[in-house]
């Protein structure tokens, strides 16, 4: 997935429902209804969500209608997807979609730090994972890591956890 985000493409709807696993256990992105090339800005794709995006995984700039989907908004959504997969919980699970939008845009709210206990055993791995996710959740797109940095961070967490 990080390879796709690093390419010249923007997916626009990264979320767990759009991650498919290969027979080799590798994640692949599906549902390219929102995808576009960063080389072309003339294509328009129809969104099927009531808000035009998947609220719990959408970056603040998408929620605010300020920007089109970008690699940076895909990294935000990737972070939320990792949060969901690692915890088994939806981001902001205790809030309505409207409240999520209000809190993210007005209070720059991020999900609360989870325990990661069922996936990560070592405290250092849990801490590194949370630091990586917080960077993915950065309010300003330019403050988010690149997809390759996310991949490297995940590999570091895995290495720490398995040592």
What would the keywords be for this entry?
single chain, Transferase(Phosphotransferase), domain 1, two-stranded antiparallel sheet
Query: Would you count the extended β strands for me?
Result: 4
Strand content: 5-15%
Taking the sheet with the most strands, its summary is: 2 strands, antiparallel
Would you identify the regions where 5 or more consecutive residues have pLDDT less than 50?
33-49
Number of contiguous helices? 6
Query: What global shape is seen?
Result: globular
- Ends apart, CA distance between termini: 25 Å
Tell me what you see in this structure.
The chain has 6 helices and 4 strands. With 163 residues, the chain is mainly α. The protein has a single domain (2-162), classed as Transferase(Phosphotransferase) domain 1 (Transferase(Phosphotransferase), domain 1, Orthogonal Bundle), CATH 1.10.510. The strands form 2 sheets. Strands 1-4 form a two-stranded antiparallel ribbon. The protein has a two-stranded antiparallel sheet with strand order 2-3. The chain starts with a helix and ends with a helix.
């Amino acid at each position: 997935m990080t390879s796709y985000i690093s390419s010249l493409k923007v997916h626009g709807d990264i979320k767990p429902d759009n991650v498919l696993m290969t027979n080799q256990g590798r994640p692949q992105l599906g549902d390219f209804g929102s995808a576009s090339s960063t080389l072309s800005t003339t294509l328009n794709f129809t969104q099927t969500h009531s808000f035009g995006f998947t609220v719990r995984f959408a970056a603040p700039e998408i929620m605010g209608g300020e920007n089109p989907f970008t690699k940076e908004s895909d990294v935000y959504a990737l972070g939320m997807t990792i949060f969901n997969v690692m915890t088994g919980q939806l981001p902001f699970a205790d809030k309505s979609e409207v409240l999520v939008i209000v809190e993210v845009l007005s209070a720059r709210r991020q999900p609360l730090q989870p325990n990661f206990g069922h996936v990560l055993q070592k405290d250092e791995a849990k801490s590194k994972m949370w630091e990586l996710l917080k960077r993915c959740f950065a309010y300003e797109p330019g403050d988010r890591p690149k997809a390759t940095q996310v991949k490297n961070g995940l590999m570091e967490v895995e290495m720490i956890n398995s040592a």
